[in-house]
Design brief:
Distance between the termini of chain A: 35 Å
CATH topology of the largest domain in chain B: FAD/NAD(P)-binding domain
Structural class of chain A: alpha+beta
Helix content of chain B: 25-40%
Number of strands of chain B: 18
Shape of chain B: globular
Largest sheet of chain B: 8 strands, mixed
Helix content of chain A: 10-25%
CATH superfamily of chain A: Folate-binding superfamily
CATH superfamily of the largest domain in chain B: FAD/NAD(P)-binding domain
Oligomer: heterodimer
Protein name (chain A): Sarcosine oxidase, delta subunit family
Shape of chain A: globular
Keywords (chain B): Cytoplasm, FAD, Flavoprotein, FMN, Nucleotide-binding, Oxidoreductase
Number of domains of chain A: 1
Order of helices and strands of chain B: HEHEEHHEHEHEEHEEEEHEEEEHEEEHH
Largest interface: A-B, 26 and 25 residues
CATH class of chain A: Alpha Beta
GO molecular function, one term (chain A): sarcosine oxidase activity
Number of strands of chain A: 6
CATH architecture of the largest domain in chain B: 3-Layer(bba) Sandwich
Pfam family, one (chain A): SoxD
Number of helices of chain B: 11
Radius of gyration of chain A: 15 Å
CATH topology of chain A: Folate-binding fold
InterPro entries (chain A): SoxD (IPR006279), SoxD_sf (IPR038561)
Strand content of chain B: 25-35%
CATH class of the largest domain in chain B: Alpha Beta
Largest sheet of chain A: 4 strands, antiparallel
């Protein structure tokens, strides 16, 4: 698989390590009353869809950036990649 | 139809005209006491033990494709019970005992061959860990033996003992482990269940559950609605997809695992051998092909095929362990989809929906578990209580903190 890195162009997926579902970027608030349940869900539960999946890849043997890659889990087709940092910043700006 | 030596002779003399189909191909009835979703090793074993041991006859097995089209036809056929943790080892040893008696029980040749497994160690630390594992195995009634290098040299002289980076110091052997003929297991269980009245319905995909007031009433399928007193889901690989239809999220990801077979070679590998310094394991089939595998690809996947980097990685492991295989040629490789659970261990449990039961999360160790998994799931479906060897495989173990993590790598499914 080739991952279209937003800064470096097409890079071999072997240069990356895989973490999992991109929702792992959204850590629950530890101060809330239901934090224990929320963290249990956050750590252990996954949607695990068959089809389009947004997921975190770390460019370990490259520029060491975190990417959010959109990929089809049935065909392995990669539909896009964004810097996780940009996504976070955009979300902050929007708030 | 019963198989026996007498029958083989008789059929040989009469032109083999008396062999019939091994199981019927019935139309689904409007309702059953128990519906099992998934006609793989686990689902069929469940139906078999439900009918044989627990006396349940109004049982159906629904399979979306044909029998054995999933992971039971895609594994590397290894059976063993060399686990460490108390939640696991008694269960897998129970499975090993069922394997040892499987052919008598199903009256079908599953070619169970107890040729032994050797887990190699390369360092003093690993020797200690394997000694501990061997002791844990013996405490659960399994057999284990620590081999030193000289003993191992006699058994497997072709190993790269003097590898400068990963010298082989010895191995942990389980003599009762071995291999079985994967298709024979499916067919034996299917035939045994069918003979006892279980309806095996192929090409019947479950499209949804009918749930009323928190209790399951039946399943919607591609061949119409089927009512059910209880529904058991045994669809490892696709567990998240199926359980999502009942509104459940599971503690697992689906990953692709590749397996490989070489061209047929003369008998050379005595049993199953696993590399301790990388992920590679190999055995030799009765046809002569070296059957081997290694790591999962490591990203979520429902494609029953993997990518080249892992092929290279597995073969590099093989070359480091036994350089002689470099002269062989790879014949085929294929992939299967695994339920990779968050602690690397399975789940056999009730759900919050009354009448809906779940069996899955087998990671890449489902084949050897099939008999005990079927037995324990049948026990749960028939009596509503977990089987004594499967009592740790609960949904709530994650919330309770009682995870069963053999490798100790945490909630990272692609590392299990």
């Amino acid at each position: 698989m080739l991952i279209p890195h937003p800064l470096l162009g097409l890079r071999d997926a072997q240069e990356f390590t895989y973490l999992g579902d991109a929702s792992l970027m959204d850590r629950p608030d530890p101060t809330l009353d239901n934090a224990e349940t929320a963290f249990c869900d956050y750590v252990f539960m996954r949607d695990n869809p068959a089809g389009v999946h947004r997921e975190l890849w770390f460019h370990e043997q490259g520029d060491r950036s975190w990417l959010v890659v959109t990929r089809n889990t049935i065909t392995h087709e990669i539909l896009g990649a964004e810097l996780a940092k940009d996504l976070k910043l955009n979300r902050k700006d929007a708030q | 139809m019963k198989f026996s030596g007498f029958r083989v002779v008789k059929e040989a003399l009469t032109g083999h005209k008396g062999w019939g189909a091994l199981w019927r191909n019935p139309e689904p009835k409007p309702d059953y006491d128990i519906v099992i979703i998934g006609g793989g090793g686990h689902g069929l074993a469940t139906a078999f033990y439900l009918a044989k041991t627990f006396g349940k006859a109004r049982v159906a097995v629904l399979e979306k494709g044909w029998l054995g089209s999933g992971n039971i036809g895609r594994n590397t056929t290894i059976i063993r019970s060399n686990y460490l943790l108390p939640g696991n080892e008694p269960f897998y040893e129970f499975s090993m005992k069922l394997w040892e008696n499987l052919e008598q029980e199903t009256n079908f040749n599953s070619m169970v061959s107890q040729r032994g497994i050797i887990n190699l160690f390369h360092t003093d630390g690993q020797r200690d860990a394997f000694r501990r594992r061997g002791n844990a195995m013996m405490l659960a009634g399994a057999d284990a033996r620590l081999l030193d290098q000289s003993e191992l040299r006699k058994m497997a002289p072709f190993l790269n003992f003097d590898n400068a980076r990963f010298p082989i110091k010895g191995g942990l052997m389980q003599s009762r482990a071995g291999t079985a003929r994967h298709d024979g297991v499916v067919w034996g269980y299917a035939r045994g269940a069918d003979m006892r009245g279980v309806d095996i319905i192929q090409n019947c995909e479950v499209t949804g559950f009918r749930i009323e007031n928190g209790a399951v009433k039946g399943v919607e399928t591609s061949r119409g609605y089927i009512g059910a007193g209880k529904v058991g889901v045994a669809v490892a690989g696709n567990s998240s997809r199926v359980m999502a239809k009942a509104g459940m999220r599971l503690p697992m990801e689906s990953h692709v695992l590749q397996a490989f077979v070489s061209e047929g070679l003369k008998p050379t590998i005595p049993g199953v051998i696993t590399f301790g310094a990388g992920h590679f394991y190999v055995s030799q089939s009765d046809k002569g092909g070296l059957v081997f595998g290694g790591d999962i690809d490591g990203y979520n996947s429902y494609a029953q095929r993997g990518n080249l980097p892992v092929v290279e990685d597995v073969l590099e492991g093989g070359m480091a362990l036994m350089p002689m295989i470099g002269r062989g040629r790879l014949l085929r490789s294929w992939g299967g989809v695994m339920d990779m659970s968050m602690d690397g261990s399975p789940i056999i449990d009730r759900t919050d929906i009354e009448g809906l039961y779940f069996n899955g999360g087998w990671c890449y160790g489902g084949f050897k578990a099939a008999p005990a998994s079927g037995y324990a799931f049948a026990h749960l479906l028939a009596t509503d209580r977990p089987h004594e060897t499967a009592s740790a495989y609960r949904f709530d173990r994650f919330a309770r903190g009682h995870i069963i993590d053999e490798k100790g790598v945490g909630a990272q499914p692609n590392l299990h």
